[in-house]
Amino acid sequence: MVASPLAAVGTGISGQLSGTATGGYGLAVFFLIGLFGGAHCIGMCGPLVATYAERMETDDRWSGALTLYEVRQHALFNLGRTISYALIGGIFGLAGALLYGTVELAGVLGPIQGAIGIVMGGAIVVMGATRLVGYQQGTVEGIVAGTGIGSLFARSYTAISTRIDRWVNGVGIMGLGALHGLLPCMLLYPAFLYAFAQGSPLHGLLSLGALGLGTIPSVFLYGTVIQSVSARQRQVVHYGLGVLFIGLGYVLLAMGFMRFGITLPLPEIPYYQPLGPGGSA
Known about the structure:
Blueprint (H helix, E strand, L loop, with lengths): L4 H18 L1 H13 L1 H18 L12 H37 L4 H24 L6 H7 L4 H18 L5 H7 L8 H11 L2 H24 L6 H28 L23
Helix pairs in contact: 1-4, 2-10, 2-11, 3-10, 3-11, 4-5, 4-8, 4-9, 4-10, 5-9, 5-11, 7-8, 9-10
């Protein structure tokens, strides 16, 4: 009897639990991307974060002292943002899993998964390379926002802007953070593509959650204390992200080529690898 795509997805997820949980190296890479990419987040979302800080009601604002209330609000904002990244990562992983579960019925899972890995890996490598050759903040985001997808981003930004005063002073600030997951972001694009190519909602959830956690220190400090990052610091971060993206894309490329019997050198590390037909890696 032929299993349905959803049943195949469920089997794949259960079989991948241990592989995902032990793939600490992969999650660490995503966390580092978020950590080193904090300056990018500040450059793109800093104005909104500064607006939140200005609109928060506190009796001690005249003294310039940071209050526990402000700390709580910024913590809730970053929690909402991280949860949003994780959920979207899980959705992309689920979309990939559904695709793989469908094509597996036709016996062509390996080649399809390999081709997607090569395309996605190549795209991530190109994104990384652009940062090493003089990436300009917001360039790619502007291009994507100008496409048909741009209307989604425009609606998200409008939703944020019209809800600031109502949500910023309560737990609703988590919703403002969650809406940031729908804004155009060069940091998130390759991560979402990677989650899709991996074809595991659990891995997508954990990976994007790790990336979100990595961005919290910079965004939290910006909202509560710093509120300024120099152009030079952002440029250094872009170079670092370029190297990380190229490395991440190379791993995905190598895993894609493996589906065609082509072996590229990879370090001996416990990275995540989706299951192939029959449950084998």
